[in-house]
Amino acid sequence: MSHTPKAVALISGGLDSLLAAKVIQDQGVHVEGINFYTGFCVEGHTHAIRNKDKQKAKRNNALWVAEQLGIKLHIIEVIEEYKDVVLNPKHGYGQNMNPCLDCKIFMVNKAQAWAWMEENQFDFIITGEVIGQRPKSQRKDTMPVIAKESGADDRLLRPLCAKNLPATLPEREGWVNRDDLYDFHGRNRKPQIALAHKFGFTDFAQPAGGCCFLTDQSYSSKLKDLWSARGERTYELDDIMLLKVGRHVRPQPHYKLIIGREEGENNYLSGYRNEFTSIKTISHKGPLALVDGKVNDADLAEAAAIVARYSQGRDAESVEVEITDRDGVIKRQRFEPMPPPEVEQSWHV
Amino acid sequence: MSEFELDARRLLCPMPVIKTQDRIKGMNSGDQLTVTCTDPGVLEDIPAWCRINGHEVISSRQQDSEIHITIRVRNE
């Protein structure tokens, strides 16, 4: 009986990895997906936090892609291991804090080194990369770097741009037909959109900057601010989750406020009330804020005045707030809302 | 058939899905797993993961802020 070739597809949840997997699946290859959760992924839960997005389906795009393809999806949590990629990228960062090239090398390596892949006799790895699509990581000169440094070498196939690259093992072995692969290049998305329509895919995800928060300028600024305030480049999962939520205001170098922008964010932040001092407006509808840093009474008075400024009592003479410390001790006090001009623009992280 | 429980409260998606996936790996076909979560995203994500991987969601209920999803495992 002839061997049915098997491929593991890196599935981000975006359009390109969906198409790459579909192209290979249609050649009779058994495809299964792998998705890595780094903590920085733009996932459905981020939308779930904010009320304004509650009309949208809170789907996980990687799961959605797998379901469209009818393939299994293995989701691997790599939060701890991924820290080294974020903190010490050998190839540096992109426009923001995105270590895209190191990230791709890491993920292909993880797939390649995954014992399950060998145990289940998978033959090669596919990605949705396209030459010229991303200025940092998806260039003609970086494609061989990823293949070599990941250890995948010529078992790494990019179906969407394979015709622009030397033939890989799956092509040479005849597991896939090179003539039925593609020669996409550049930032133009029209070929991918056309291919999606040809396959009958609609409602696919195309997030700007890809599927990672580290490509986002605002998020990257908050991450740099976190490291600067702590005096060290480290993070835990809760740190990077909180950077996705709320308005971040740093009135003093030693503390910042994370202020909910609407009910969904307030609910989410309330889950952290045992780990942070929190401030909530009582006399007027307003946000819940977490105080990140060691603060004294003067700092708390300043923080409360800022939080009051973001409540519906912003024009009132005073607003009653409830300050709860990490031990659950509650103090109620009235504060004059800080006038908008005094909330300096430079405080906004 | 054995019944198991998994506490995935306070975890945001996709972590409850990952915990479910990893827990089910060591179970036998016919076993049941009840996952308790607080992120409403699981109402979409766990059933989607089960459909993809051939497991069956046999009940899904919300009680106050907690969601309980029971899965019948169908491992190959």
Any guess at the CATH architecture of chain B?
A: 2-Layer Sandwich
What about the largest sheet of chain A?
6 strands, antiparallel
Q: Give a count of the beta strands of chain B, DSSP E runs of length 2 or more.
A: 4
| CATH fold group of chain B | Translation Initiation Factor IF3
Class from secondary-structure proportions of chain B: alpha+beta
Shape of chain B: globular
**Strand sequence of the main sheet of chain A, in spatial order?**
6-7-9-8-10-11
How far apart the termini of chain B lie comes to 15 Å
pLDDT < 50 stretches of chain A: none
Oligomer: heterodimer
CATH architecture of the largest domain in chain A: 3-Layer(aba) Sandwich
End-to-end distance of chain A, in Å? 62 Å
Give the number of domains of chain B: 1
Outline of this structure?
The complex is a heterodimer of chains A (349) and B (76). Chain A is α/β, with parallel strands linked by helices and 349 residues long.
Care to describe what's here?
The complex is a heterodimer of chains A (349) and B (76). Chain A is α/β, with parallel strands linked by helices. Chain A folds into two domains: 6-213, Rossmann fold, CATH 3.40.50.620; 245-347, no CATH class. Helix content of chain A is 34%, strand content 16%. Chain A has helices at 15-25, 44-49, 61-69, 79-87, 100-113, 115-119, 143-150, 169-172, 190-199, 217-230, 237-242, 263-270, 297-309; strands at residues 6-10, 30-37, 73-77, 124-126, 156-157, 247-252, 255-259, 277-281, 288-293, 319-324, 330-335. In chain A, a hairpin with a 2-residue loop joins strand 6 (247-252) and strand 7 (255-259). The termini of chain A are far apart. Chain B is an alpha+beta fold. Chain B has one domain (3-72): TusA-like domain (Translation Initiation Factor IF3, 2-Layer Sandwich). In chain B, 30% of the residues lie in helices and 36% in strands. In chain B, helix 1 runs parallel beside helix 2 (42-53). Chain A binds chain B through residues 37, 41, 43-45, 48, 57-60, 62-64, 66-67, 71-77, 241, 271, and chain B through 10, 12-15, 17-18, 21, 39-41, 43-45, 48-49, 51-53.
